[in-house]
Amino acid sequence: PSRITATVRLGRGKVVDIEREVELGGPTHSKGVMILSSVLASRYAKDCPLSLSASLVFEQSYGSVDGDSASMAELCTLLSALAELPIRQDLAITGSLNQLAEAQPIGGATEKIEGFFDICSAKGLTGDQGVLIPASNAKHLMLRQEVVEAVDQDKFHVFTYKNVDEAISILTGVEAGERATADGKYPANTVNFLVDKRLHEMSDLLRNYTESLENDEKL
């Protein structure tokens, strides 16, 4: 498995794909990051500008990276950084993302689950470890018998998800929260509430900073 990290700061809405910047990211991976940026803006910038800059990177990855099977993981990492909620490190996730924040199937799901299972087995199964895969991949799984038995005995887990809300809820242990139709607000202390709150705070900070610069120039 690879470890993905994200950092966020004030900016103008740009999400920097470090793999692409150093020419390690392929076009399909870069497309996935651009879709991620679109999802972020469409979900949280309905009534204020997206006033952040963010960076995403595969830590200690020195070879080329391509494909979009990490795009859901990258979005969840970014939401975790914005909400300041840690992601469980005993879970792995794979899955592609579309502009509606829905999960799309990926290749090699069986191999990815078995690979993470083997690593967890070598370190010792705790009963908490597991893998998240798109729900559409579940019917095609052909797992080894030892993996099936571990899942049946609750020593290892295979979670399925249909969208980013389901994925981030499992990864953080905090409800994602649905936007209310009446006032457009998310339920308090949910992941989406915390992300939305942080982005509005950043928008206010950037606006105040810009206004202060303009006032200084007039003096």
The secondary-structure element order is EEHHEHEEEHEHEHH
Number of strands: 8
| Shape type | globular
Query: What value does the Rg take, in angstroms?
Result: 19 Å
* Structural class estimated from helices and strands: alpha/beta
Unreliable runs, pLDDT <50, ≥5 residues? none
Strand order of the largest sheet: 1-3-2
Portion of residues in helices? 40-55%
What is the average of the pLDDT values? 90
Give an account of the 3D structure.
The model has no long low-confidence stretch (mean pLDDT 90). The chain has a 3-stranded mixed β-sheet with strand order 1-3-2. Strand 5 and strand 6 (103-104) form a beta hairpin. Helix 3 crosses helix 6 and helix 3 (71-83) crosses helix 7 (191-218). With 219 residues, the protein is an alpha/beta fold. The chain is built from 7 helices and 8 strands; from the N terminus they run ββααβαβββαβαβαα.
Topology (SSEs and partners):
Layout: E1 4-10, E2 14-17, H1 18-21, H2 27-44, E3 52-58, H3 71-83, E4 91-93, E5 96-97, E6 103-104, H4 109-123, E7 130-134, H5 145-152, E8 157-161, H6 164-172, H7 191-218
Helix pairs in contact: 2-3, 3-6, 3-7
Offer a few descriptive terms.
16% strand; alpha/beta; 3-stranded mixed sheet; 219 residues; 8 strands; globular; 3-stranded parallel sheet
